[in-house]
Design goal:
heterodimer, A: OB fold (Dihydrolipoamide Acetyltransferase, E2P), 2 domains, five-stranded antiparallel beta sheet, about 25% helix, elongated, B: mainly alpha, about 0% strand, sn-glycerol 3-phosphate transport system permease protein (chain B), transport (chain B), MetI-like_sf (chain B), MetI-like (chain B)
Chain lengths: ~375, ~280
């Protein structure tokens, strides 16, 4: 966090127990609270249908709030029109005006706000420069590629003097390579302009790579808010642990044997360095924390299903004797044939979850791996 | 390749032959009409359609001997005004039906649709009584006021406006556009093609109307061209067919113009690139 980075008292966007429902049985969002600092890159992430776009539209003022309070820079904006909230928005579908050329598309909002002509010119030209579209300024949107259209939408946000920019899955219509490129461009733009960027995505990679803070939404509720490191290393619950990291984390039931030993559903044991509470019923093991040995039938605890060679590493998909699908990430090239018997073991850098899937924090002092 | 080529070529030959035949059936009367408009009436009366005595005399006499210019002027004024009024009022009511939220919106729209289901001929007597009582007979107003808006136009534009991406509305909201600015700056240009279609449709509708002006106008001051054409026929004891043909050719010109100009705009992909 960089509160008061420039020594001034910075204001922020605050969501206070914001809810949205259409009738009592149709709850879209429940009690969402967060503080979004000025100048930060804030990513709202979650699976589709979790209400993340609705939350963004509520901040923008396009959707009404059922309950709670949103304030921007100390002012409650619940009843403020979108235009009075001093923000811009980049839409998933870009929302360009097909009958206007690139330059006019970028200038549209500024003209609507009746800015001085010279200033409009200055801002639009600067914005187009910044997204390197100057030479395309006379083209119509239909004459542009997907990436260029996306840049026009970005330029529109850049040209505005609004200090808050909302983006609703802006990269989801682009192909994989372009997405990586635009991801970097958006990140650099945000840093250069120093704007507050609230970014909605379903893509955990986008969230991890760009965010200062991430809000994880699922099931209409906030699961966790934190920095990418916090989210990855100290997930609040099994859902968050599941959502971040590829390959997927292995969440399996485990039984406590003694104060320091866990039995993973009869397949293998993990020796912990700190006392295990009685509440622990499940564990989460990142695929990289597991290791594999070739083993004969007698000592094997799993069977290989398939392997994927990714270049620097190999993912081994296996089924444990107790029937759990498990993913193991091995460095380099590992050769395991399908149906081969293997012995899997784990480091003790794992997460413990209670019966409600909440992560049980390691006791302070005992914390070795987090 | 060759084996698949043959049937498709045969296919082409058959379908083009059919098309040519049908085109001939449709176009022949039209060209016969144009051709005879250049022939002297005497030749036409004799049935000598292959005469080579071609001249523009019929056109000259149409303009000099009849009030056709006045009729054309009347029709032009009425058609242009009808078109303009329908574009304005239909697009505004369609906007209201799509973008404004008000009570009984759908019920009111259904009422609009119901008026479309009654044929104009069925309403013609009560309408006539109304305009007569209002003292509007034989005046431009009787040709204009009943046609200032149309349920069909509202319906057509409503369907078109509903296709306008909702993101454009949201983007406009964020920029702080009011309803009129959004209507004028975004909805109208986005739906240009539909507006041109409706414009062409209402212009031609007004240009070609016959029954209503026949009932409500009876002097050259307000008579429209289609009725004027009929007038040319009955005023003369001996019909000057050459001149009537020439007049008919003249009044077809705007129809053809509108279609050609309109066609230029019916290109697909005008709105590509707005979303995605």
């Amino acid at each position: 966090m960089y509160r008061n980075l420039y020594g001034v008292n910075k204001m922020s966007t605050i969501l206070n127990q914001v809810s949205k429902n259409y009738g009592a049985n149709n709850v879209i969002l429940n009690n969402v609270s967060a503080e979004i600092e000025t100048g930060e890159f804030f990513v709202i992430v979650g699976p589709s249908g979790c209400g993340k776009s609705t939350l963004l539209r509520m901040i923008a003022g396009l959707t009404e709030i059922s309950d709670g309070e949103i304030s921007i820079d100390g002012q409650v904006v619940n009843d403020l029109q979108p235009k009075d909230r001093k923000l811009t928005m980049v839409f998933q579908s870009y929302a360009l005006f097909p009958f206007l050329n690139v330059w006019d598309n970028v200038a549209f909002g500024l003209k609507a706000r009746k800015l001085d002509q010279a200033e409009v010119h200055q801002r639009v030209n600067d914005a187009l420069d910044m997204v390197s579209l100057s030479e395309f300024k006379d083209r119509k949107p239909r004459e542009l590629s997907g990436g260029q259209r996306q840049r026009v939408a970005l330029a529109r946000a850049v040209a505005s003097d609004a200090k808050i920019c909302l983006m609703d899955e802006p990269l989801s219509n682009l192909d994989a390579q372009l997405r990586v490129k635009m991801r970097q461009e958006i990140y650099q733009l945000q840093r250069k302009l120093g704007i507050t960027l609230i970014y909605v995505t379903h893509d955990q990679v986008e969230a991890m790579t760009m965010a200062d803070h991430i809000m994880v939404l699922n099931d209409h509720e906030v699961q966790q808010i934190g920095t990418p490191t916090e989210i990855y290393q100290q997930p609040a619950n099994a859902f968050v642990a599941n959502f971040f990291g590829t390959p997927l984390i292995n969440v399996m039931p485990a039984q406590k044997i003694d104060d320091y030993t866990l039995n993973v559903d009869g397949d293998f044991e993990i020796r912990m360095e700190q006392k295990i509470t009685d509440k622990a019923t499940k564990i989460g093991i990142r695929p990289g924390e597991l290791s594999i040995e070739h083993a004969d039938e007698l000592f094997a605890n799993a069977t290989v299903k398939s392997t994927e060679f990714l270049g620097d590493e190999t993912i081994v998909y296996a089924t444990t004797n107790s029937g759990h699908d498990i993913r193991v990430l091995l460095p380099g090239k590992a050769v395991y044939a399908a149906f081969e018997k293997i012995k899997i073991s784990s480091s003790n850098n794992i997460f413990l979850f209670d019966s409600l899937n909440k992560r049980i924090p390691m006791e302070m002092g005992d914390l070795v791996n987090a | 390749m060759i084996s698949t080529n043959k049937p498709s070529r045969l296919n082409k030959i058959v379908s083009y032959t059919l098309l040519l035949l049908l085109a001939f059936v449709i176009l022949a009367p039209f060209f016969i009409g144009i051709w005879t408009s250049f022939l002297p009436t005497m030749e036409i009366a004799k049935g000598n359609f292959l005469s080579t005595d071609l001249s523009l005399n019929n056109y000259v006499s149409a303009f000099t001997k009849t009030p056709i210019l006045r009729y054309l002027g009347n029709s032009l004024v009425v058609s242009v005004l009808t078109m303009a009024a329908q574009l304005v009022f239909c697009s505004m009511s369609a906007y209201a039906f799509v973008f404004l939220k008000f009570k009984y919106r759908n019920a009111i729209f259904v009422l609009f649709l119901i008026t479309m289901m009654l044929p104009f001929e069925a309403e013609i007597i009560p309408n006539f009584t109304t305009v007569k009582n209002l003292g509007m007979l034989d005046h431009y107003s009787v040709l204009l006021i009943p046609f200032l808006t149309s349920a069909f136009g509202t319906f057509m534009l409503r369907q078109a406006f509903m296709q306008t991406p909702s993101e454009l509305k949201e983007a406009a909201d964020i920029e702080g556009l009011n309803h009129f600015q959004f209507y004028w700056n975004i909805v109208l240009p986005y739906n240009k093609v539909s507006l041109i279609t409706l414009g062409a449709y209402s212009f031609l509708g007004a240009w070609n109307q016959y029954l209503w002006p026949m009932l409500t106008t009876f002097s050259n001051n307000s008579r429209l061209i289609q009725n004027g054409l009929r007038q040319l026929q009955s005023e003369e004891t001996f019909n000057d067919w050459g001149m009537i043909q020439a007049s008919a050719a003249i009044i077809v010109i705007p129809t053809i113009l509108v279609l050609f100009i309109g066609q230029h705009y019916f290109k697909s992909g005008m709105n590509e690139g707005a979303v995605k």
